[in-house]
Design a protein that fits this description.
Layout: E1 4-7, H1 13-22, E2 27-29, E3 36-40, H2 44-54, E4 63-65, H3 72-75, H4 81-90, E5 95-100, H5 107-110, E6 115-119, H6 124-133, E7 137-139, H7 153-160, E8 166-169, E9 180-183, E10 190-193, H8 199-206, E11 210-211, H9 213-216, E12 241-245, H10 248-258, E13 264-267, E14 280-282, H11 289-303, E15 311-313, H12 321-332, E16 337-339
Parallel strand pairs: 1-8, 2-8, 4-6, 5-9, 10-11, 12-15, 12-16, 13-14, 13-15
Antiparallel strand pairs: 2-3, 3-7, 4-7, 5-6, 9-10
Helix pairs in contact: 1-6, 11-12
This protein binds adenosine monophosphate and magnesium ion.
Adenosine monophosphate (AMP) binds next to strand 6.
Length: 344
């Protein structure tokens, strides 16, 4: 199959993409978080193609992308007021809510669960595709399963050229890490995955938030977890990653001491001069955490190279989107962190 590259700016792009979705084909869509691999979320056969193209485990559910809060009730039952309050505060935007699913949503889409994840993306062309298709678009990140997420159309082409009908090229993703996921099906709201909307912002609306253990620790492959996606090896290049925490100077001293040929350093732009001769790669500026979230996955993809032996990574501190960057880097590192302040 020839994969069409459609520019988000071309006048007929949304109509072409919507037609392909209605026909049951796969179309990669740009969002503010990452590129999604989209299909008609109500069509089991179309959704099955997503799992096949990604090599995704069947129990790892997808997110349903919709046009706005008025569509929540079409696909979710027993919607609590908090869902509408969150939608009012953060949609369109990088927030996914988990709610009880209506029967219209196929089990393929929910990974066999009775709940469904739903979100309204902050991307005009993608919302137009959903509107014209007349169906919600089920989409996980458009990377091959286990690989770093796709934040440009070129990343999607690299992973799926010739295997999907089209890619809508909307340029690099603004946020760059996947959406925040909040489960609203229990007594207390639960953060299943940090993303572009930080826990502090959620708390201002919800007044209460449990942080799921899958956010803060490594989860075994056979564990029962609320967000099945959290237990799989994720966001990771092929070689080992270790996070080196501590002050700029102490971290640089530690890394330079342990650095061997074939290793790489993933650091902040401000730190590049400290790593001369250590093949440093910057993923953004520490002073502007939005550049770090936007640049993280492109950098992890660049480091996903068999010639690289070991990656030493620097991780931002703090809340908001920095919390999501910490989570993705810790997952890439399988929670392997050394504190340079404690090393002699
Ligand atoms: P991706 O967009 O590739 O990160 O994949 C979607 C994420 O949403 C996965 O991590 C899933 O585990 C999560 N997800 C989707 N549906 C549900 C659900 N019903 N309950 C909990 N998590 C979900
Ligand atoms: Mg993913």
């Amino acid at each position: 199959m020839k994969t069409l590259m459609l520019s988000a700016d071309a006048p007929d792009t949304a109509a072409i993409a919507a037609k392909l979705i209605r026909e049951g084909q796969l179309v990669a869509i740009p969002t503010e978080t990452v590129y999604g691999l989209g299909a008609n979320g109500l069509d089991e056969g179309a959704v099955a193609k997503i799992f096949e193209a990604k090599g995704r485990p069947q129990d790892n559910p997808l997110i349903l992308h919709i046009c706005g809060p008025e569509q929540i009730g079409n696909f979710c039952a027993q919607v609590p007021p908090a869902a509408y309050q969150l939608a009012e505060a953060f949609w369109p935007g990088p927030l996914t809510m988990v709610l009880p699913a209506r029967d219209i949503v196929p089990k393929r889409t929910t990974g066999g669960l009775n709940t469904v994840a739903i979100r309204c993306p902050d991307n005009d062309v993608t919302r137009e595709v959903i509107r014209l298709a007349g169906v919600p678009i089920a989409a996980p990140s458009a990377n091959l399963s286990g690989k770093p997420s796709t934040t440009t159309a070129q990343h999607v082409l690299h992973d799926h050229d010739g295997k999907i009908a089209a890619i809508v090229d909307g340029g690099p993703c603004r946020v760059g890490v996947e959406s925040t996921i909040v489960d609203l099906t229990e007594q207390r709201p639960r953060l299943l995955r940090p993303g572009g909307i930080g826990p502090e912002a959620l708390l201002t609306v919800l007044g209460d938030l449990v942080i799921d253990k899958a956010v803060t620790a490594q989860i075994d492959a056979d564990a029962v977890v609320k967000a099945p996606g959290m237990k799989y090896r994720h966001y990771a290049p092929t070689e080992p990653v270790v996070i080196v925490s501590g002050s700029r100077e102490k971290a640089a001293a530690y890394i330079r001491r342990h650095f061997e040929p074939g290793d790489r350093v993933l650091c902040f732009e401000e730190e590049l001069p400290l790593y001369e001769g250590c093949a440093p790669l910057s993923y953004g500026r520490e002073a502007d955490v939005n550049t770090l979230s936007a640049g993280l996955f492109a950098a992890l993809r660049e480091l996903d190279d068999p010639a690289v032996h070991q990656v030493y990574a620097r991780c931002p501190e703090g809340g908001g989107v920095a919390y999501a960057v910490q989570n993705r880097l810790k997952k890439a590192a399988a929670f392997h962190i050394v504190n340079a302040e404690e090393e002699v």
